[in-house]
Amino acid sequence: MPTVRDDVGFGPANLGLRGAELAARVASALAAVGMAEHADRPPHHLSFGQRRRVAVATVLAMEPEILVLDEPTSNLDPASRRELADIVRSLDVTTLLVTHDLPFALELCPRSVILSDGRVVADGLTVDLLADEAFLAEHRLELPYGFDPDVHRRRAGAPWRGRRGWPGAGDRAPRSGRETSQTERLPWSADGGAVLEPGMRVLPTDGRRSENVGVWSRV
Questions:
Q1: Confidence category of residue 165, pLDDT binned at 50, 70, 90
Q2: Distance between CA atoms of residues 104 and 125, nearest Å
Q3: What's the pLDDT tens digit per position in 177-195?
Q4: Domain ranges (residues) in the chain
Q5: Which residues make beta-bridge pairs with 202?
Q6: pLDDT for res 209
């Protein structure tokens, strides 16, 4: 009977990895999602949340440059959702999150892109996009009852509001390929006080991007 270890090792094995190298790749991926102790269990014996974590591990075992997650919180209970958020936050890989779970996007993605009828209608700070109730309603997006994105803004100390652009509405975006490694003030922003935080567009010392982007789409 196939095991979790077999599932996670399937991709790397197809790349030609064998023996100790394959075992190390599998062990690292399972450890990253907190499932190392379940390596020898059949996948169908796992809970839904555990299966979701193993699914992430199967991708991590391939050592991707970009991790794409499509509706990752679908059908997860609150505890499993929290565990998944902690895992994604801990990963040193650029993550593209496709979701209708707006609070989840706010928690993990400084930047978000909104798609509506196949078009990009917004690209900016997640906290600013979520604060625009009229804009969300226009594109059939809705926050949970009682959820206030401004609470998150105050906790995070977000310095500026830019609604429909990156970095802000009507602002000139950073030139192509430009990265920052430290907090940088953007004098061309609408209010003159925009700050580009390192976690939004940063090029780590190992040369890999580490930027999480949320994509929301109107169905």
A1: very low
A2: 14
A3: 344 444 444 333 333 333 4
A4: 1-63, 66-218
A5: 180
A6: 41
